[in-house]
Every structure is written in structure tokens, then in C-alpha cells.
TrEMBL record:
NCBIfam families: PRK10707.1 (NF007980)
UniProt xrefs under PROSITE patterns: NUDIX
Keyword Aminoacyl-tRNA synthetase found: no
InterPro entries to which the protein is assigned, alphabetical: CoAse (IPR045121), NUDIX_hydrolase-like_dom_sf (IPR015797), NUDIX_hydrolase_dom (IPR000086)
Transmembrane domains' residue ranges: none
Name of the protein in question: Hydrolase, NUDIX family
Gene3D superfamilies tied to this protein: Nucleoside Triphosphate Pyrophosphohydrolase
Molecular functions per Gene Ontology: coenzyme A diphosphatase activity; metal ion binding
Lineage, uppermost ranks: Bacteria, Pseudomonadati, Myxococcota, Myxococcia, Myxococcales
Cofactor(s) the record lists: Mg(2+); Mn(2+)
Organism (species): Stigmatella aurantiaca (strain DW4/3-1)
Domain Nudix hydrolase: 27-160
Keywords, comma-separated and alphabetical: Hydrolase, Magnesium, Manganese, Metal-binding
Pfam families the UniProt entry points to: NUDIX (PF00293)
Length: 196
């Protein structure tokens, strides 16, 4: 699977990530890691489900990440720190492949997504205050067109599309699904049909 990760890294390096330009909106900085890993020759992606008691995005699937703290030198520091805090994956064990476009949320955050490769051994130490469930999904499975749909929503008088991915009984939607859609587009570009 190194070939896929190498090709994705090269593709991300050729595409400068688009920063948000939303005049009049003040958004708080945040960052996430989109964790990829290989297990038995099959590339996977990892999602976490947030506990029901959290104030923002409770009980939703997300990528490890959160608000940028003052001591975080960069957004990447935020993504790696949060991944370590949420899943127990040491920063030194993450191979960062690159960045995706910034994504806004209706809760007034701007998310800078980073794509990274984590160990595939499944040795997580989830923080129960931040993670209620870990979902591992074969990356190829998410490319099945029937898993993806969009719905129209309105927020502050503006209509927009919301992405949904349904894998078995699990539904990934909102900003996380928007990030996922962009990643899957790039994966489709760099890797031919029929890969494992």
C-alpha cells in the first residue's frame, strides 16, 4: 500500500490547499488528521465517534482533531496533538502526506485537514472523554457510489449541500463527509480501479 500513500503524497504536494474566504464571518481555527493505515494489504480510514455529552457535534463521526490552542505553533501541531490525546497515537508515528482544502462548520470553526498514515496495528488508547467509538473502514468500500448522497440544507438563509456516507449502519456526514469526499476524489485520481 506504500504505492497508494506515495502517490497520494505526490498529488497533495501538487495541489496547494485552498484557504477559506468568507468575508464577514469570524471562524475559530481548528485542525484534524485524516488517518489512513494499511492492514493485511488493504488501505483503511479511521473515524471516531464523539461522545453524546459534548457541546459541539455530539455523537457524530469525525476525524481526530479540535480547536487550535495558543501553544500550537501550526495547525499541523494541533492535528497531531489532538490525535495523540484522543487515540494515544504518538506524533512520531504519523507520516503526514499533505493538506486538504479548509472546510467551514456551522459551529463557526474553520477546519484545516491533514492526511496522515498511522500504524495499522489497531493499538489505540482512546480517551473516553473525547471518543466513544472507533470506526475503521476499508478505503475502497467508501468509493462505492451507493454509499454517498447529498441533501439540501439551509443555514442563515443560505442553501447548501450536505454530504452523507452510510457504511453499514454508520453515517458520516457534515464537515467530516465533505473532507472525506475530497480525499476520495484524490484517491480515485491517483489509484486505478481494482486496487485492494
Amino acid at each position: 500500500m506504500d504505492a497508494l500513500f506515495d502517490a497520494l503524497e505526490t498529488r497533495l504536494a501538487s495541489l496547494p490547499p485552498q484557504a477559506l474566504n468568507l468575508p464577514g464571518r469570524v471562524l475559530r481555527e481548528s485542525a484534524v488528521l485524516v488517518p489512513l493505515f494499511e492492514r493485511e494489504g488493504v488501505p483503511h480510514i479511521l473515524f471516531t465517534r464523539r461522545p453524546a455529552h459534548l457541546r459541539n457535534h455530539a455523537d457524530q463521526f469525525s476525524f481526530p482533531g479540535g480547536r487550535r490552542d495558543p501553544e500550537d505553533a501550526t495547525a499541523l501541531h494541533t492535528a497531531l496533538r489532538e490525535t495523540e490525546e484522543e487515540l494515544g497515537i504518538a506524533r512520531a508515528h504519523v507520516r503526514v502526506l499533505g493538506m486538504l482544502d479548509e472546510v467551514p462548520t456551522t459551529t463557526s470553526f474553520r477546519i484545516q485537514p491533514f492526511v496522515g498514515v498511522i500504524p495499522g496495528d489497531g493499538q489505540y488508547r482512546p480517551n473516553p472523554e473525547e471518543v466513544s467509538f472507533i470506526l475503521e473502514v476499508p478505503l475502497r468500500g467508501l468509493l462505492e457510489p451507493t454509499l454517498h448522497r447529498t441533501e439540501k440544507r439551509t443555514y442563515q438563509g443560505v442553501e447548501y449541500d450536505v454530504d452523507f456516507y452510510t457504511y453499514n449502519s454508520h453515517v458520516v456526514w457534515g464537515a467530516t463527509a465533505r473532507i472525506l469526499r475530497r480525499l476520495l476524489t484524490l484517491v480515485s485520481e491517483v489509484y486505478p480501479p481494482g486496487w485492494g
